[in-house]
Each structure stands twice: as structure tokens, then as C-alpha cells.
Amino acid sequence: MESLSHEKDLSTVLADTAHRIPKRTFIRCEGKKITYRDFSAMATSTALNLRAEGLKKSEGVAILSHNCPEFIAAYFGVLRADGVAVPINTLLNKEEIEYILNDADTIIVLYSSQFTSMIEKISNTLNRVKFLPLKKITQSRGREDLSGSATVDPDNIAVILYTSGTTGRPKGAMLTHKNIISNGLAIISAFRITAKDRFIAFLPLYHSFAFTVCVIVPMISDASITVIPSIKPFQRIMKRCITDRITIFVAIPTVYTILTKTKMPFYFRWLLRLRLCVSGAAPLPVKTVKASPFERRFKVPLIEGYGLTEASPVVCVNPLGHGKRRPGTVGIPLPGIRVKVVDENGNEVPPDFEGELIVNGPNVMKGYLNRIEGTADTIKDGWLYTGDIATIDKDGYVKIVDRKKDMIIVDGLNIYPSEVEACLHRHPDIEECAMVGISPGEGKEVPVMFVVKREESLLNGKDIKAFLAKHIAKYKVPKRIIFVEDLPRNPTGKVLKKELRKKPIPFRESSLFFHTDLLW
């Protein structure tokens, strides 16, 4: 990796790398290898095709696809055409996708064949949008150049990533080229990434954590990626770790918890070439790192970090090196990033005192699309207010204590109860409802909805789940429905969700999300 500053855009960084190391493999996927030169050509072809379809500067292009080389090529092709990429969560339903396409005012949607039926439904209601097959639009047109293209301003918006919010409607976080590159460089420094490293990308690439760590970081460090289309079957992922000599393994906590317990061939660990495991997108149970045999079993450090989409996304990581990591914390800020814990008035609190964690640095988003007030509430004097309650000790280690924002994390995916509650309130038989996350153990959270239904209503739990599934993604639908006569409230009428979380609720194993049979 040559010296790289924040003053370049992502497309230029890719072009420079392809010029320096044209024959080096960038992507491996299902037995195929794509060099940096060929991948850059795919991005150029995508850009030319998009311009031929009428894409203009700063217009949005949505990408709806499972993990594949074409997804990544589309992302960079949009940027090379000076457009804005809008990756879509593949778990969303028709109603949710339509909302994002309208809010982002996208003019083109690139989709893979798995979503043809979904696109057919959406295209009937969105006549202004062009829907184009991903494989066709990324098809190589040879070694063509974008003649006359000007260098993109690094402060221009590169991507809009939608994250649900406390208002019940998803918000588009606008991230610039500078935001993303600065975060990638900081991660490279913290993890000591080199061109010899090999990453595996099986987490969904529409997620900011997966794309930044598994695509942006290797791309700007001259490293390579093995792209896995799906997490199932997990055996394929572990086999690829061996055959492709993966050195950096990136996953969510649930995967590490299961790997700790799962039986596997005795020779398997001898064949691994991993030097680092990274956990993100959700809190890592302390016992997975400290009390369990994970690190002893795999002979590789497991590093937990912390971030949020609005910060591009990584903010803190536990530092490498024996004795430097502190289980139970999310580590220290990445180079170039500052953090503080403040009280309700915005005043910094002393070490080990609780308050809201705020972040400052070149990785902080430009703002929320079309939401001036929401941006002003979140970014104040250059500081991003995360909504997470934390402490910082005298050595600078950050510990996340609670969430100020009402949010549930299910296997790395954020669920905002207000969004689900607002949806359920549309049902005529619902008087009141409140959703909370309740932990059945091992750091998991399960969404549970407490419901007060109208008198004489025959509504049951299955009816509620079926109703919600028509309007929101399945992963947002509560796993348990509890009918109650009323909801606990404080004197001002606010629902006391802390009281709801205290209620004893038995969980069967089948109600949880991950199972060991996914692995072997």
C-alpha cells in the first residue's frame, strides 16, 4: 500500500491500486479469481453502463443483492460514475424497500436474480425508477476508460446507509469518501493490516461493518478478499478459510460463541492460517473471550470493537498485543478519533462515570438525508451523539453500559421497537403495545412484544406476527407476544420498559436465532 491520504476518492484509490498491482488477486469467489485490474475494469464498465442509462452526478443507485463480486463492482461503479450508492438490506420487505427508494430518490435499482420477484412487485408502483439486472450492468466492456472524468471531491457523499431510528422511520446516513477512507486507514493501523492479509466476507455486505472491514480495508491495503454468497452452510466458510489461507476472520458474536462449543475435526485447527478474529455489530459476551476456550482452542486473538453506521462505522477496538486487551470493554478509539462521555448538558464527566458517548473525527457522517432537525440533534459542534451510555476509564478504555436509544440487537441487526410498535398500532384490535429486548443468556437479545388488545378481540399471537410480517422484515417481528391488561407507566404516562424487561419469560431453544447445526 502506497502512502494514502484522505484527499482521494474511493474510485481513484481503486484505479491507482489496479495500475500498481494489476495482476494481484483482489477477489476470490466460488473458485474464480478476479485481479485488481479486471475488477477495476468491471467498475468502469458499470459506470459507463449507468451513464448510458441516464445516471447523473450525485444521483442515487440502489443495490439489492446477496454477497457476490458484482455487488462490490456495482458499488465502485456507482462511485466511478460520480453517483451515490444505496445498498439495500436484503431482509427488508416490499414496503420497506419502497420507502428507502422514495426517500433516497434513487433513479436506478441494480438487483441480482434472487430478487426478481420482489423487483417485479416494486416496479409496478415505482414507474420513475429503472430496474436493471446486476450481472448485465457490471458486465465487462473491455479496458475502457471514463474519458473526461474529473476527480471526485472526497467530501462528496459516496454512500447512503439506512438505519432505523427512534422516530419509527429509517434514516439515511450520508457517508463521504473521506469518511470511509479515513475509517479504513485507521482500522489498518490498529489491526496492522498488510498486503499479505486475506479476508473472508460472509457477513452481508449491505451492512456498514462488513463492507468497511471486509472490502474497503483490504482494497486500500492491497490485500485480497474471499467472498461467500451466504452464511449457510457454514461448513463452506470454514473450508474456504483453509483453502484460501484466510488470515482475517470477521464475524458477529453469535458465530464465535458457537465456534467455541462446536465439535470439529481434530486436524482442522492445524490447517488454519488465521492471525486475527474480529467481532463487531453487537456486544461480545465477556466469557466468549475470557472464560471460554475460544482463544486457546484456535490460537488466535479475538478482538472486539464498537461502532455505528453514522461513524463509518468503527470507533473503538481493543488493541492488539498481550495484556493490552480488556474483555468487557470495546477498547480504545482508533487513530484520529476522539471520544468523550458527557452528561445531559453536554459536559464531560470524570473517568468511570456514566454518560452518553460522543465521537469526533473524520469518520463522522455528513448527516441524515432530508432530516435537518435529526442531523442537528445527532451532530453538535462536530460531535456525534451515539445514544449509547458508556464509561471511559483513566486509561481510555471504553465500556458500553446501556443504550440511551431504544434499540434491540439481534445477531448484529438493529431493531428499533418504535418502528415495530408504530406498525402494530395500525391494527384495529390493538389498544397499546410495547416491545423490549429480553436476554435468554449468552449475550443474545430476543424481541418480545407486550400487547393490550381491545375488549372482546379474539386476536392471538400468530395473528399479530402475520400482520407485522406483511409490513416489516421478518427479523424485526417479535419472537414472543405477551398479552397484558395494561402497561406499566410512570406518573407522566411514559411506558416503563425497564419493568417489562424484568418479567420472567421462558425461552425454548427453537425461539433463538442461531443453532450449531448451521456450522457442521
What does this structure look like?
- The chain has 520 residues and is of the alpha/beta class.
- It has 2 domains: 380 residues, Rossmann fold; 111 residues, 2-Layer Sandwich (GMP Synthetase, Chain A, domain 3), CATH 3.30.300.
- It has 17 helices and 26 strands.
- Strands 2-1-10-9-11-12-13-14-15 form a 9-stranded mixed β-sheet, sandwiched between helices. Strands 16, 17, 19, 20 and 21 form a 5-stranded antiparallel β-sheet that branches. Strands 4-3-5-6 form a 4-stranded parallel β-sheet, sandwiched between helices.
- The longest helix is centred in the first third of the chain and has 17 residues.
- It is globular.
- Beta-strand share of residues: 15-25%
CATH class of the largest domain: Alpha Beta
CATH architectural name of the largest domain: 3-Layer(aba) Sandwich
CATH fold-level label of the largest domain: Rossmann fold
**Low-confidence parts, pLDDT < 50 over ≥5 residues?**
509-520
Q: Describe the biggest sheet? A: 9 strands, mixed
What is the spatial order of strands in the main beta sheet? Answer: 2-1-10-9-11-12-13-14-15
Q: In which range does the helix fraction lie?
A: 25-40%
Task: Estimate the global geometry from the Cα principal axes.
Answer: globular
Give me the number of helical elements.
17
CATH superfamily of the largest domain: ANL, N-terminal domain
The value of Rg in angstroms is 23 Å
Mean pLDDT: 87
Structural class: alpha/beta
Count up the domains: 2
The total of beta strands comes to: 26
Distance between the termini: 37 Å
